[in-house]
Structure to design on (422 residues):
């Protein structure tokens, strides 16, 4: 959430950000209701002061003065009640609008309408050239007998799946590899809850806009789409010491998404599923833009290191304003090469959020100067499974139908090669 004072004082900047994002938001309506809210709040505060004075007159005045004060008190109470109701409605409308006002993109973010306008920053790794008829990853999954989609759909419905045999050890290995890299770099490991309260989803900017993409229980809880949600809620309503920053967390959790807007996309296989596992990187740091920039580059480099250890060709892109998430100031995607599609596909997203989430969550820190500030937050995927298998299996397939396991992963996966079972 943006600071309303910032919005008032930087109307043109905010309006330009809304334009760049191609966002349907009525800024004039927000500013108008804010002005009305402030005016009514002033009236309410004056009426309350008058009510307090009348109350004092009742206790201290003469009998005649007390009678007049009682009449005035009743009149004030009625007027105040109406004004408080008016203020409540204005506050609700104001809050609703503030919750749907997106963050301000960094000046370095390229302007665009959609993901087609994202800009490539760099590439790494050599794209494989096969001297045999290469298979797509779904064929590999079935030939290697490490996944079962037919029974997955029978049990879990559309996009359901089972991983089995080496598919299990491979997944565990990928999580362990990511966690080992992060722990060595000073990240504190967590297993975070997959369930979250509605207010945490609201405060981490997942609600109200994206409600249709989340699974909800009948007791007011939501299934988390990423460990970012629960890990940001970890410090809700806390004031940290500046000396305790940065906070660096590596959180593993199951994740759930309805993929409501993806009808017709990647319906076959494991790339876009309702249930998956992820190791997420989370950082809380001082409220300084350059500090956020520095950690953003660090998070991205760590993910590049993990992808590099898996010997996957990849590229890093900067997302355009039209493809920038609601709460992000800036975002990089890492995309890994998929031979069967002859293109890169997104496997990691690395975001700067500034204080957009922490303002809602009330995550603050006390600076060396004694001032209380909202921390900045950042997040990035370390590894997401089973999506990464899409690229991993195809890139490392061999002529005999086997898949060679990258050396860095072998000690975790417990094997150096997976051979066909058919």
């Amino acid at each position: 959430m943006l600071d309303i004072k910032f919005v008032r004082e930087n109307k043109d900047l905010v309006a330009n950000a809304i334009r760049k994002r191609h966002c349907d938001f009525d800024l004039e309506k927000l500013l108008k209701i804010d002005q009305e809210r402030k005016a009514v709040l002033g009236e309410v505060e004056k009426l309350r002061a008058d009510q307090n004075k009348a109350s004092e007159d009742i206790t201290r005045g003469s009998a005649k003065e007390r009678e007049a004060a009682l009449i005035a008190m009743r009149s004030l109470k009625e007027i105040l009640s109406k004004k408080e109701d008016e203020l409540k409605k204005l506050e609700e409308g104001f809050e609703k609008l503030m919750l749907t006002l997106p963050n301000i993109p960094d000046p370095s973010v390229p302007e665009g309408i959609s993901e087609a306008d994202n800009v490539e920053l760099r590439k790494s790794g050599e794209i494989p050239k096969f001297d045999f008829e290469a298979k797509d990853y779904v064929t590999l999954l079935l030939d290697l007998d490490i996944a079962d989609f037919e029974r997955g759909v029978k049990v879990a419905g559309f996009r359901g799946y089972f991983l089995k045999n080496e598919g299990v050890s491979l997944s565990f290995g990928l999580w362990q590899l990511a966690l080992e890299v992060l722990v060595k770099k000073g990240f504190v490991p967590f297993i975070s809850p997959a369930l979250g309260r509605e207010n945490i989803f609201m405060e981490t900017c997942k609600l109200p806009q994206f409600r249709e993409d989340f699974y909800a229980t009948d007791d007011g809880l939501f299934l988390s789409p990423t460990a970012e949600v629960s890990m940001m809620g970890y410090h809700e309503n806390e004031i940290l010491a500046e000396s305790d920053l940065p906070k660096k967390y590596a959180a593993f959790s199951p994740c759930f998404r309805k993929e409501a807007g993806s009808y017709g996309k990647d319906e076959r296989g494991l790339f876009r599923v309702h249930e998956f596992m992820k190791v997420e990187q989370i950082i809380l740091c001082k409220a300084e833009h350059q500090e956020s920039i520095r950690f953003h580059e660090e998070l991205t480099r760590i993910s590049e290191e993990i992808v590099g250890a898996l010997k996957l060709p990849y590229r890093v892109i900067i997302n355009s304003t039209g493809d920038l998430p609601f709460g992000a100031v800036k975002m990089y995607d890492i995309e890994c090469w998929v031979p069967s599609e002859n293109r890169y596909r997104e496997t990691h997203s690395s975001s700067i959020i500034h204080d957009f989430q922490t303002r809602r969550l009330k995550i603050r820190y006390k600076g060396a100067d004694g001032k209380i500030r909202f921390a900045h937050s950042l997040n990035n995927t370390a590894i997401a499974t089973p999506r990464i298998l899409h690229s991993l299996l195809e890139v490392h397939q061999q002529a005999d139908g086997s898949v060679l396991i990258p050396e860095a992963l072998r000690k975790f996966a417990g094997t150096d090669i997976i051979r066909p079972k058919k």
